Amino acid sequence: MCAERQIDIMAIVNLTDDSFYAASRCDLDSVVARVGRFIDEGATIIDFGACSTRPGSLPVGEEEEWCRLKPALKAVREAYPHVAISIDTYWASVVEKAYDLIGSFIVNDISAGRMDPLMLPAVGRLGLPYIAMHMRGTPYDMQTLCEYDDVVGEVVEYFCDFEERARVNGLKKWIPDPGFGFAKTIGQNYELMRGLDRLQYPDLLVGVSRKSMIYRVLDITPEESLPATQVLHFHALNHGATILRVHDVAEAARTVALWRRLNG
After folding, report:
1. How far apart are CA 182 and CA 146, in angstroms?
2. What is the mean pLDDT of residues 200-214?
3. Which of 164, 194, 203, 245 is the most exposed, having the fewest neighbouring CB atoms within 10 Å of its CB?
4. Half-sphere exposure (CA, 13 Å, Cβ side) for 247?
5. Where are the beta strands (DSSP E) in the chain?
6. What is the DSSP letter of 257?
7. For 213-232, what is each residue's pLDDT tens digit?
8. Between 97 and 147, where is the model more confident?
9. At 19, is the pLDDT very low, low, confident or very high (cuts 50, 70, 90)?
10. Residue 68, C-beta contacts closer than 8 angstroms, at least 6 positions apart
């Protein structure tokens, strides 16, 4: 637990109309202003998503996803040429088009290359940083895929296997995301949170912001889940998280600041 380690705050920008937290939805008219506010509040990475992956949502397809992403990426890159951009996609074609448009960025793939076999070769060829998330199946069928004897052991083994896939495909830098809320029960999510120390990687992304593992346990709504989100962020920082993927940048930045003060 080193208080001096770099902590990145990844701000969520959803270019959709059906993400589970309505306040995260953003259109082209407001995207530049929202990104500017997130940067002012302390975001170091802006994560664009153009297809909801909440349980019960429907995929939009790679062409529609790119149609939503293209103008937003262009506008934000022109307004903020130095901010780090991440794109939440599992399509290799989206990655290739985005690279042609804005240059290097972080690929944030919930499927760890399993939903598009062309993804890892494309990322390796382009030399992009890559976030690989743990899940089983797809986000559209995951309600039947939650049986684990040891969820932490499953995640550890998953990333051990991914390490070889990354090597074969020439990935230079990849970051694990244990996939809170994806193909896991509420109990398994908390078991995984307690076992984060078993994920011994230089970087670790944790994405729990306002998720059902919070609001269902507390019998509240996503809109009421901000304080409890910060409790889990603080725990994650204590157990190795280096990237917090968040809806609420200012609050996450304050949590990081207090964590540093307590561990300084």
Report:
1. 9
2. 96
3. 164
4. 21
5. 8-14, 45-49, 84-88, 106-109, 130-133, 174-177, 205-206, 243-246
6. H
7. 999 999 999 999 999 999 99
8. 97
9. low
10. 15, 16, 50, 60
pLDDT (tens digit, 9 = 90+) per residue, 70-82? 999 999 999 999 9
| Tokens at 3, concatenated | 């208080």
State the average pLDDT over residues 163-173. 97
* CA distances (Å), origin 189, targets 9, 174, 204, 208: 21, 22, 16, 10
116 C-beta neighbours (distance < 10 Å), count: 19
Q: Are 166 and 143 in contact (CB under 8 A)?
A: no
DSSP lists the bridge partners of residue 18 as none
Which residue out of 114, 184, 210, 211 is catalytically annotated? 211
Beta bridge partners of 106: 86
Residue type, 260: R
Distance, in Å, from the CA atom of 54 to the CA atom of 76, rounded to the nearest integer, reads: 25
Question: What are the beta bridge partners of residue 111?
Answer: none
Is 198 designated active site? no
Q: Is 125 a catalytic residue?
A: no
Question: Residue holding tokens 């809109």?
Answer: 223
Element housing 122 (H / E): helix 119-126
Q: Is the per-residue pLDDT at 24 higher than 80?
A: no
pTM of the model: 0.93
Are 56 and 19 within 8 A, CB to CB? no
Of 68, 136, 184, 245, the active-site residue reads 245
Tokens representing residue 214 in the block: 């919070």
8 A C-beta contact, residue 201 and residue 187: no
